[in-house]
Amino acid sequence: MDGLTSLKRSYLFTIFMKLVLIKLVYLFPGISLIHFCILPIHIYFGPPNMD
After folding, report:
1. Which long-range contacts does 4-13 make (Cβ < 8 Å, 24+ apart)?
2. How far apart are CA 1 and CA 46, in angstroms?
3. Nearest to 49 by CA among 13, 3, 1
4. Integer CA distances (angstroms), 48 to 22, 38, 39, in order
5. Is residue 35 part of a domain?
6. DSSP three-state, residue 45
7. Is 50 inside any structural domain?
8. If we measure between CA atoms, which residue out of 5, 45, 43 comes closest to residue 21?
9. Is the separation of the CB atoms in 21 and 36 below 8 Å?
10. Residue 15: enclosing H or E segment and its boundaries?
11. pTM surpassing 0.85?
């Protein structure tokens, strides 16, 4: 059950990051490229604790 919850959280976090990325593409094209490099790292290491 704990593993499923973790998977769900990382999935939601990935969606959230993609939405943020889309916003940044429109607002700051230069910064969005940096986020494109950071996003795979977040997915690989898992979402940071939001607490």
Report:
1. 6/46, 9/47, 10/43, 10/46, 10/47, 13/42, 13/47
2. 17
3. 13
4. 20, 13, 12
5. yes
6. helix
7. no
8. 43
9. yes
10. helix 2-27
11. no
Tell me whether residue 51 is in a domain: no
Total structural domains within the chain: 1
Which domain range does residue 39 map to? 2-45
CA distance 17 to 43: 10
- Cα separation, 39 vs 21, whole angstroms: 9
Residue 32: count of CB within 10 angstroms of its CB: 16
- pLDDT averaged per 10 residues in sequence order, the chain, 51 residues: 77 86 68 65 59 46
23: in domain: yes
Distance CA 6, CA 3 (A): 5
Q: Which three-class secondary structure state does DSSP give residue 48?
A: coil
